[in-house]
Give the backbone structure.
Amino acid sequence: MKINWGTGLVIGMALFMCFILYMVITMSTNKEYSHDLVTEAYYEKEMLYQNEIDAETNAVNLSSKITGSKTPEGWLLKFPEELVSSKIEGTVFLYRPSSKQLDFDFPIELSGSILLIPDERLLEGRWNITISWEYEDTSYLYKNQIVY
């Protein structure tokens, strides 16, 4: 039996459709290809993004910036001297891109203008640090990537 070009074209299209169908089923059912979003409430968080931009702008407009450095005791964050530490209320969130289980947050408790993140809470490697605080009814936000 001879196969003409029309039959070859139909067979080729059928094989291609079977291949695509196989790939779709494999990608949707295999746990190896299952990836989570970076944050659980991605869409809700996106709606609040303008507030985040405004808070970051407020932090940039301070006369001095938050600085961080590694010490033997842990990661040392120094807040601007112009802020009265007793009026600062907020949280520090540390995000570990490689493992969701290592993420943690805690309230800001300053000693003077200094905040220490203890060494036992941090593993070596990359961390994303987000500090959000309010000072005299103004929101501030500081984001940075650190390598501990």
The chain has a mean pLDDT of 85. The helical segments are 5-29, 42-47, 49-60.
